[in-house]
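To assess whether ligand presence alters the predicted conformation, the chain was also submitted together with pyridoxal-5'-phosphate. Input:
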Amino acid sequence: MHEHDFDGDAWSLDTLAVRAGHVRSAEQEHSEPIFATSSFVYGSAAEAARKFAGEEPGNIYSRFTNPTVRVFEERLAALEGGERCVATSSGMAAILATALGLLEAGDEIVASRSLFGSTVSLFSKYLGKFGITTRYVELGNLDEWQAAITPDTKLLFAETPSNPLSEVVDIAALAEIAHRHGAWLAIDNCFLTPALQRPLELGADLVIHSATKYLDGQGRAIGGAVVGADRELEELFGVVRTCGPCMSPFNAWIFLKGLETLGLRMRAHCESALALAQWLEAHPAVARVHYSGLKSHPQHALARAQQTGFGAVLGVEIAGGREGAWSVIDATRLMSITGNLGDAKTTITHPATTTHGRLSDEQKVASGISEGLIRIAVGLEGLADLKADLARGLDRLA
Ligand SMILES: *Cc1c(COP(=O)(O)O)cnc(C)c1O
């Protein structure tokens, strides 16, 4: 029988994204099947007893393991270069499982200030209720990270590049700081995906994903995952298996189909984003473009060194404050006005009044979220159409 030898070390990312993880069933199917089943049966009472006792591997119940979900987990683990992956019901569930699996009351987290809004609520409001404290520091300032660490710090958590200003942190240097203090470093790799950045290779211990974004890439389903070493991932698996935030087989199948085109899509996203960023930077109605792929970005060299691409999220400061920003957004006819990103469809938002609306005026100033800032998550439509869509509003302001 013809079987592909699985060789995760030798295959390129594009090959792993298409092939890794699928072991054909007896039906010899070509495409990954959806195992839509909540439970699994045993050949005998004795086999059931052995499986429940953990003496024999195998599926028991889809909250624990499911073959379609396992293919997704193995494929993403191969792409990130991790020993093991645990899939979750959402990106937030991936972060929750990490905290529940690795931390206890009295432990501390140090996190970058510019985080996904729900991550801040999860850390400060919900983990706070259980005696876990979080301190926030400026993403790129390693001295601040260092100074915030105490003997109780167990987890360093960063999103790099940041949303929407494209700030980055030196992952290798941050991993070194974490390990010197016996803490784990978790990187939320949602904005770049393993196609553009592999944090584990740079020394991070855990990679967090919202599969909802670029892993799917077409805005169809909510899911998440954590990738890392067996020791930590076994703890996270225990949380998902017991507490229940597992990925559904149907969503795992959607993400598998998304992953097949990950490399291709990310290259196209990056190419359009850079071209659009350069064009916007030259437009008279634009005060500034924040994108780590631009030479004008203060951390361009670091981004170049640790990433193989710059992603597709642009922060664009429009002259004329909120009024100017809103008029550009409202003049679009093609882009979707929505807070989501990581989609083939380009999205446009005004962070100060949506994703970052919870921040006080002082916090907005400190985080660089000005009233004139718009965020564009560049999709896969024709570049000329995207330019024309923005030019309609921008030309009126110039
Ligand atoms: C969307 C997002 C999350 C949360 O993921 P969900 O799938 O929406 O739960 C976490 N981190 C980042 C950077 C995100 O963009």
